[in-house]
Specification:
By secondary structure, the protein is mainly alpha-helical. Among the domains are: 64 residues, lambda repressor-like DNA-binding domains (434 Repressor (Amino-terminal Domain), Orthogonal Bundle); 112 residues. The protein contains 19 helices and no strands. α15 runs antiparallel to α16. The chain is globular, with a radius of gyration of 22 Å.
Amino acid sequence: MDAYGDFRAAVRREMERRGVGVKAVAARTHYNHAFLSRVLSGRQRPSAKLAQELDRYLGVGGAVVALYEGRTPAGSPDGGLAPLPGIHSVDEAQLAPTIRRLSRRLITLDNELHGLPIAESATRAFKAARRRLKGGIGSAYERDVQAAAAELAEIAGWACFNEGYTDASGLFSREALGLARESGDRGIELLTLQNLAMLAGWTDQPHEELTIAQTVIADRALHPRVEAMFRAREGQGLGRTGDHTRSARAFARARSLLQEAAPSDGPEWAWWVSPAEIDRQEGRVRSTTGRWNDAIPVLRRATNGSPESPAVGYRQAAAVWLLDSLLSVQAWRDAQETAEALVLAVRETSSRATLGNLRRVLSRDTSAAPADLRDSLDGVRAALAQDPFRL
């Protein structure tokens, strides 16, 4: 490996982990994507300034700079990232970068395995950041800290939703929205509005979900990937209010918008918006509105995914809706295959939204199902009841 091979490998690995491409990274640094592509492919020598900018953008606590300089990153003997200082004690100049590095780590944990629980850590961290803001931040750093805190609050809001704390999800999401608007961070504002639309849909407020989505869509300046995200929300709201024709059109439009955007293109925070995500959302609304036969092929696509689909911690949600739909149409053999796949996955799933829905599905009357299927469903129940603190 050449002198900067470790540096290049670390940057590419961190970009892949975060689901961002060269264009997205270049947009947040002072280098164009062609130059950055040459650096990452080994055709251009990196500079100390580039290493510093990449380190700050990726939020890796000096690890990229250390590798550029030929040093082992501090924190662990195998080159792991340095431990973060406490939000309450770090100086103002390092406060926003520290919050962002913490947010990156929380996102990673949220998508490890089948979603590790992060709500308590995220909410505690945001409260610490909020206290620092309330105590006063110098004008040179205030907006940057507000923007970093907005992202952390957005993560806390999502995590609370994923772990079943819907009231807390709304609380932290509204905090995120306010801070994003104060700091002028349009990206986090949009992501938070998406979360609020999602929360409305899951709490039986489809008209609110639809209103949020259509209000944002009216802004013609949206990136195609971002518009696709809100078209899917529009599709969910329309489906749950009974307008299935327009719902299907909204999802079709979301898919066509994704085809307009390259996988590496778009805002970094929209990394999770993929064809599999559109399928998860459309399959869910078809299933919840009793159109099970229409839901099954869409949910199969979402469950199978593709090698290019970003890994999300709630990915088993589609398999649960698929099982529900298969049981509803008495597709016993397919239901058994889906149940058997869930036996292994459920042991690693921590999303309470997904697990709560699975418990609902398992509570259905399946006395008319074949014995083999009932045995498979019992296997899922046993896995669901397993003590996570025992081997």
